[in-house]
């Protein structure tokens, strides 16, 4: 799930749109007026993804850019990765990994089969060797062999919220199980003032990983607006200095929280029985009316 939709530059409107019923709502593809092959995917009015079919390295949403910074610093450019993406949308980050690290073995898990069909037909990823499967993210994670992936990405939203069964301590522990030594866990967390929900996710990650980092917009960290926190975990030391440089140089600057800061901010991790979905964003965010 991405940031609020920006208006078209110069007052122009989207050049085209496609609207379709999918398994879990109504999906809409809006043509980007500034990029001939750029498209934004919305589901039930919530912006989920942006892709540029001509240039998969173009990343429009702030949080996806921050995830890409993590990928760039976690794995050498051109070095293939074994990646598991929980949450599909329009497959933005998998496309980025495929073109920057050719030969990567990537599985994308998306629960909405109708959405997979729409994206496959309208936003094809021909030649990128993505294995896209329809299924529940938690069930797919449970089936994944131990130490089988180098990169595990959590970016699942049912409408505008991450489902409860993907926010528990048990879920994050299973994610750690699936990562190979030196692997990287990256989670997109949406939260508002006080970051109460994000703090529970910090606690779950703190119990599962030896090293943590997070990237977050200053206004989100300071509680001035709702937004995304990109949480990173690994059993190896993370390139925090590199993340600071990348985040500072980005058109959407972010603050980088180191391991000590995250553990100090951590609240209480929820078990499967007590887990709750991420909070509903207010109107006007992520394209919501």
What does this structure look like?
Pfam families: Methyltransf_30. Keywords: Polyamine biosynthesis. With 289 residues, the chain is α/β, with parallel strands linked by helices. 29% of the residues lie in helices and 27% in strands. The protein contains nine helices and twelve strands. The protein has helices at 62-74, 92-100, 113-122, 137-143, 169-178, 196-208, 218-221, 240-249, 259-265, and strands at residues 17-22, 25-31, 38-43, 46-52, 82-86, 105-110, 130-134, 149-154, 179-191, 211-216, 227-234, 255-257. It has an eight-stranded mixed beta sheet with strand order 7-6-5-8-9-11-10-12, sandwiched between helices. A four-stranded antiparallel beta sheet has the order 1-2-3-4, covered by helices on one side. Strand 8, helix 5 (169-178) and strand 9 (179-191) form a beta-alpha-beta unit. Helix 1 (62-74) runs parallel beside helix 2 (92-100), helix 1 runs antiparallel to helix 8 (240-249) and helix 5 packs across helix 6. The longest helix has 13 residues, at 62-74.
Characterize this entry briefly.
It is built from nine helices and twelve strands. The protein has helices at 62-74, 92-100, 113-122, 137-143, 169-178, 196-208, 218-221, 240-249, 259-265, and strands at 17-22, 25-31, 38-43, 46-52, 82-86, 105-110, 130-134, 149-154, 179-191, 211-216, 227-234, 255-257.
List the helices and strands and how they pair.
Blueprint: E1 17-22, E2 25-31, E3 38-43, E4 46-52, H1 62-74, E5 82-86, H2 92-100, E6 105-110, H3 113-122, E7 130-134, H4 137-143, E8 149-154, H5 169-178, E9 179-191, H6 196-208, E10 211-216, H7 218-221, E11 227-234, H8 240-249, E12 255-257, H9 259-265
Parallel strand pairs: 5-6, 5-8, 6-7, 8-9
Antiparallel strand pairs: 1-2, 2-3, 3-4, 9-11, 10-11, 10-12
Pfam families: Methyltransf_30 (PF05430)
Organism: Pseudonocardia oceani
Protein name: Fused MFS/spermidine synthase
